[in-house]
Amino acid sequence: MSETIEADVVIVGAGPVGLFAVFELGLLDVRCHLIDILDKPGGQCAELYPEKPIYDIPAFPIITGDGLTENLMAQIKPFDPTFHLGEQVNSIERLEDGSFRVTTDADKIFLTKVVVIAAGGGSFQPKRPPVPAIENFEGKSVFYSVRKMEAFRDHDILIVGGGDSALDWTLNLQPIAKSVTLMHRRDAFRAAPDSVNKMRALVESGDLKLVFGQVTGLEGEDGHISHAVITDNDDNEHKLPTTRLLPFFGLTMKLGPIANWGLNLHENLIKVDTEKFQTSEPGIFSIGDINWYPGKLKLILSGFHEAALMSQAASRIVFPDKKILFQYTTSSTSLQKKLGVA
Ligand code: FAD
């Protein structure tokens, strides 16, 4: 059953720019809901380069992708945003009164006055492994993420991959599964050493099966797998009883459903003005890497500036009768109260 949530502002994307928008909107008393496909905030910084140093964030001579995300999360804490992680925004429709209905693939409906699209390079989508007819099993017995662990209880689970996601889910699902097999091409794992050690201890105690090779076929009916066909590194074929397959082959970025939201685009980016960063649809704003205007630079600092100007315009929609005063955080007691420092 779908859940309906009333909101002032819904931000699509919890990357660095979506996160900073929470701060700028918060100073203007606007509370936000953030939705992201990823299971953590931080967008590209968290997913693509968590440990790499960034050198061009103003006043931070050096900060990692994860460090920047952590600082942004601390900075927006006073405004208590609501996160909806692991969910993709599928559609935005305008309602008769000018507000919007935003729907996600987790059956959530948001009724909101303003939408801010901070969707960066677009949707992170799982890479599909090259297994014949795998699409026939997707959503029924093949999954690329774990939304609810209960859906995996008492199953024969095959997890494929050698990174953190594969290892984390191997360790988390092993206690509730009927059986778990972890498969990777070779005996070398990119995941955190602690997870690899825990995984090896489970193999040692006989609670986990570790195999090297590739999935080359799936058997089953009506989308439900019964066996995975595995080809090992000596080219021998085995059939492994499997009722749930979780391949973790990394993520790619695609524009995704944004293309269908009726907005004017420029080469797959959302066209905005440079006064409010509003799209061709009044009330829908777009900031960060996903937008385009003449002279646009895809830098985090550009997104931060866009968030500040967007917030002024968005707050006028949320509070049409309120006068907005320009204030500095250094000298305004009212802003400092909102930040919990005065
Ligand atoms: P993103 O970080 O892309 O976040 C957007 C979020 O929106 C994602 O989490 C995505 O899952 C989510 N999303 C998309 N569509 C949907 C949907 N339909 N529903 C729900 N969620 C959705 N920039 C710099 O300024 N300095 C640097 O040194 C620098 N180095 C970089 C190094 C690398 C390797 C890379 C890849 C990028 C680098 N960048 C750098 C660019 C910087 O990371 C981006 O400018 C920044 O991440 C843009 O932030 P954003 O919030 O606009 O988008």
List strands and helices in order, with pairings.
Elements: E1 3-12, H1 16-27, E2 32-36, H2 43-47, E3 53-54, E4 63-64, H3 65-76, E5 82-85, E6 89-94, E7 100-104, E8 108-117, E9 123-126, E10 156-160, H4 164-173, E11 179-184, H5 193-204, E12 209-221, E13 224-232, E14 237-241, E15 244-247, E16 251-254, E17 265-266, E18 269-271, E19 284-286, E20 291-292, H6 300-318, H7 333-338
Parallel strand pairs: 1-2, 1-8, 2-5, 8-19, 10-11, 10-15, 11-12, 18-20
Antiparallel strand pairs: 3-4, 6-7, 7-8, 9-16, 12-13, 13-14, 17-18
Helix pairs in contact: 1-3, 1-6, 4-5
This protein binds flavin-adenine dinucleotide (FAD).
Flavin-adenine dinucleotide (FAD) binds at residues 12-18, 35-38, 43-45, 48-49, 54, 56, 88-89, 118-124, 256-258, 288-289, 298-301, 303.
Cofactor: FAD
Catalytic activity: 2 reduced [2Fe-2S]-[ferredoxin] + NADP(+) + H(+) = 2 oxidized [2Fe-2S]-[ferredoxin] + NADPH
Subunit structure: Homodimer.
Count of DSSP strands: 20
Give unreliable regions as ranges.
Answer: none
Structural class given helices, strands, pairing? alpha/beta
Q: Enumerate the distinct ligands.
A: flavin-adenine dinucleotide
Shape: elongated
Helix percentage range: 10-25%
Would you list the SSEs in sequence order as H and E?
Answer: EHEHEEHEEEEEEHEHEEEEEEEEEHH
Percentage of β-strand residues:
25-35%
Describe the biggest sheet? 7 strands, mixed
Mean pLDDT: 95
Q: End-to-end span in angstroms?
A: 44 Å
Rg of Cα set: 23 Å
Count of individual helical segments: 7
